[in-house]
Design a protein that fits this description.
Blueprint lengths: L35 E11 L7 E6 L21 E4 H17 L3 E5 L7 H13 L3 E6 L9 H5 L3 E5 L5 H8 L4 H12 L4 E7 L7 H11 L5 E8 L5 H6 L14 H14 L5
Parallel strand pairs: 2-4, 4-5, 5-6, 6-7, 7-8
Antiparallel strand pairs: 1-2, 1-3
Helix pairs in contact: 1-2, 6-8
Bound molecules: iron/sulfur cluster (SF4).
Length: 275
């Protein structure tokens, strides 16, 4: 049993390591109750994770291993802080009036929020009771785990589609692409609002055919309000070193303006609203 601690505010770029050594492996989470969970940190004023001003809770646990991940310290529950649901909701209730006034809300990111399904479900339900707009940032890899009642507590899905090509997806994330595409199609059939996020990494995801594949997949989906192209950066590189992980992108530069414009143009030409 992990030791209960205080949820830390801070930044997604703070390194958190080894805070709950007794935590289960992220592939074996049993959080049927959702009264407790593992979090990396939270931010109170993000403008990048959904509409308006957002509080963002970064939860621990992810089954993907993206080679360019900015936050490898969110992969394992054992690196997170063990906190109670009540503590998270108490914190959130302090910000709720300002978030509502500024047209924002709560976003749960990670890590992958669907690893701790009951915990994140109850945070979303609590946030809805406060009148907050809610958003989840997810790879969709665990989308099959999510039922309609979970989705009913989430207003917006920020869906990271990292590639349209199964081989590229596996090379970049270590996992299968199919669950993400299946989840995207299900969200489209439910008319659930989605912002698709695509991380543009030179030499990994920037191939024109890869971009075209995502653009053609997404363009017919009326529920996709935005495609957001996110240029690769190295703000998380120091974490890989601190965690003794091999970082494959030490020599990868952020994409040039020219490449970013080319990719934005590909999405636009396919009929997507892109930024
Ligand atoms: S899905 Fe997100 S948190 Fe998980 S490895 Fe990929 S970038 Fe990192």
């Amino acid at each position: 049993m992990s030791e209960l601690r205080t949820l830390e505010s801070g930044s997604r770029y703070d390194l958190r390591k080894g805070l709950s050594p007794d935590a289960p492996d992220e592939s074996e989470v049993r959080d049927e109750e959702g009264s407790f969970g593992y979090c990396h940190s939270y931010e109170t004023s993000s403008r990048y994770d959904g509409p308006g001003l957002r509080a963002v809770v970064f939860v621990s646990g992810c089954l993907l291993r993206c080679s360019y991940c900015h936050n490898p310290d969110t992969w394992h529950l054992k690196d997170g802080t063990y906190v109670s649901l009540q503590q998270v909701l108490d914190r959130l209730s302090g910000f709720a009036p300002s978030l509502i006034k500024l047209g924002g809300g709560l976003t749960i990111s990670g890590g992958e929020p669907m690893v701790q399904l009951a915990f994140t479900r109850r945070i979303f339900q609590g946030a809805k009771k406060m009148g907050l707009h809610t958003a989840i940032e997810t790879s969709g890899f665990l989308g099959d785990r999510v039922d309609e009642s979970y989705l009913s507590a989430v207003d917006l899905i920020l869906l990271d589609i990292k590639s349209s090509d199964p081989d590229t997806y596996r090379r970049v994330t270590g996992r299968d692409l199919a669950p993400t595409l299946r989840f995207a199609e299900r969200l489209a059939s439910l008319s659930k609002p989605v912002w698709v996020r695509f991380t543009l990494v030179a030499g990994a995801t920037d191939d024109p055919a890869n971009v075209d594949g995502i653009a053609r997949f997404v363009a017919p989906m009326k529920n996709v309000q935005w495609v957001e192209v996110q240029p690769f950066h190295k703000m998380g590189e120091f974490k890989w070193k601190a965690m003794d992980l091999e970082y494959k992108h030490a020599n990868t530069e952020p994409p040039t303006r020219e490449v970013v414009n080319r990719v934005i143009g590909q999405f636009r030409d396919a009929g997507c609203q892109v930024r």
